[in-house]
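Q: Give me the 3D complex with adenosine monophosphate.
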Amino acid sequence: MNVLLLGSGGREHALAWKIAQSPLCSKLWIAPGNPGTTGCGENVALSPVDFDGLKAFCTQKKVDLVVVGPEAPLVAGIVDNFSADPATADIPVIGPTRDAAQLEGSKSFAKRFMLRHGIPTAAYREFNAGQLEQALAALPEFGLPVVLKADGLAAGKGVLICPTQTEAESELRAMLAGKFGEASTTVVLEAFLTGREMSVFALSDGQNYVLLPSAKDYKRIGEGDSGLNTGGMGAVCPVPFASPGLMQRIEERMVRPTLEGLKKDGLVYQGFIYFGLMIVGDNPFLIEYNCRLGDPETQAVMPMIKSDLLALLARVSGEGLKGASLQLEPGYAATVILASGGYPDTYQTGLEISGWSQAGDSLVFHAGTALSPDGRLITSGGRVLASTGRGGSLTDALQQAYAQAGKLNFEKKFIRKDIGFDAI
Ligand code: AMP
Ligand code: GLY
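A: Here is the predicted complex, encoded as structure tokens.
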């Protein structure tokens, strides 16, 4: 099969690494990819939202399958765009249609969906820019801290947890006045849930699904889950506290009702669904959906999958996933992010990365790297590299991930030192 993978981060490097191992893969292109993905396939200088460019490429190169890493092309309707064009209508794109991608694209859409289909979630109300007074009046209903969420996509920054009434009021005013642009002209007020976070990923063909191993990511920049939210500073897979009983409750209360709900609502979903969960006591609550895999969770999840992922992806639009199962590797994987000092605020780019030879051929996924004009590997983003370790125990996996991460260097390298330790 000829495969085109869209995206350029650590998640896409991990997907490319896994797809390239499939005996079914004859050719893999990554658009636009990064210096790491060149080890798995060929990078193509096309943006994941340049639908016309991507369609022309797919037709010319006889691409058989498109795999989408990030949410932007899905929310912008890549699935609908490809299927509406006779030249590409037969090329399956793994992901939901634009309407179904609203599960990630709009918090208000997602909350209404959860309520409509009886999926446990935190209590909430939503308000638009013309309803500031009502929103301010509703705040005390939620107690403290209170969670404020911009309705639309805000580059992972649209969720604020406000510890005081004063802060909540001023943030609410700022959000409804356009703090996050269009994304926050509607705001969701939500009750704060206390529990343990984890994520579950399903691959759905619209009827049936397979679950990937569970993962837990570490979103805050600082140790002990302190400081600003980031895209994710590390991940472990599978989640040690995800007992078979808990996984069964998650399937019964979240996964199946979601797939049934999509069908009832006439939403076509053939792709990955990410369930962001808070486990309160023994009970799962759904905090959010994403219409793609997580980053950096994918960098820990892919190495745990023994089965041929490409064969499974091909089934999504082919024979379907009925009866499909996923074989897993034994043990655990852990991923540690090497970030650029200052992230998630401002940080420098263009810093040279050294230590590659010491790290050997271990699993180091590129997230924000580039090649300088003279061919040196340099930083180009806030999250620079993802070091993944594997082991029979989570402790072993973490040790390996940290040992590798320690060998790689760039100026102002920042690593959170406590990834996974609360989960051991
Ligand atoms: P989201 O973008 O919805 O995943 O939110 C980002 C982060 O905010 C989540 O990973 C949680 O850590 C936190 N969060 C979101 N909603 C809630 C909630 N209702 N209660 C507690 N924490 C939350
Ligand atoms: N790591 C969280 C996300 O990918 O949304």
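A quick observation: The longest strand covers residues 196-204.
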